[in-house]
Amino acid sequence: MVAGEAAVGRFRARAGALTLLFVAGSFERERLLELLEGALTGEMPPVPDADEVEAYERELAEEEERDEDEEYGDELGEEDDGARGAMRTTSKGDEFLFVAATIERWLRKCPEGPLELGLRGAKALAPLVCGWSATVTHALAAEPLTFPELDHEVGIIDSDGVATHLDMLLRSGQAAELPGAAADGEPRFALTDWGREGIAPIVAAVRFECHYPEDDVLPPDVFDVEASFQMALPLLELPPRLRGNARLGVQIPGGEPLMAGATARVDRGRVLSASPLLEEDPETWATGTPLDWCETVVDPATAKLAAGGDAELAGALIEALHERLFGDSRG
Fold this sequence. Notes:
The chain is α+β, with helices and mostly antiparallel strands. It folds into two domains: 1-219, Winged helix-like DNA-binding domain superfamily/Winged helix DNA-binding domain (Arc Repressor Mutant, subunit A); 221-326, Nonspecific Lipid-transfer Protein, Chain A (2-Layer Sandwich), CATH 3.30.1050.10. The protein is 50% helix and 12% strand. It is built from 14 helices and eight strands. A hairpin with a 5-residue loop joins strand 4 and strand 5. Mean pLDDT is 84; it is low at 1-8 and 72-87.
């Protein structure tokens, strides 16, 4: 079955993708689903114009007001409009705004200069979302690849589609051609640090979807979990005294128990590798559901993970993930 497609044939978005486009203000959900389905053939979602963005923001404000009325209407009773306006947004609204804040934090770190969540930001967000939806980002997360290797790893779209996604990532600065060719003379491509940090808005969007699931969105799968760790772990800097292996495991929901994630090998404070092969009997480990991991990385104070072994190593990895991806975007 093609990734992102339901067993009955109705397309469903890969975890995080639909929410990111929706938060960015790009059209209605049904059209977004069509755009994401098109991404599997290498199509580029059109950037919304100013009128569409304004209409979406107006619609969002009206929807938020309706949500507040439903949640707090009985409590407010006959109180005046001033009291109603002083109420906080709903929990769903707060998380929606957190996704937007995380996107903005990532856009501000663009190597070519800070971007804002708007038309220019949408041009940078589209390659991230489409590359994630088509699993091109997943394939590049592990190691540098030549184009034939990338094409083979992706598998779910044709070579022209893979080439289009790679070109989008290169033009946006989320991937780069490495100096020096592979042994066969082919150029090699890898995610940039900024491209890897794109996992932050994806995690924020997945967290939102875990709290508010929809039928048109798939839950995180094994490939999503492995790619998430492989994108993020190479970015981390830990105290130089730390070394050892730690299994970071995610319990994938489903009929049979399934564990995915990465084994992080740390030496002198650097993550040397993040293998998707999980050690069966690790000395240090941390395990939880997709939502547990999302909540913990967003705010380690809310950690719900089960852990054992070297508590300092496990805690340092979690804290470093938080600081690199979400350090100043809480609230």
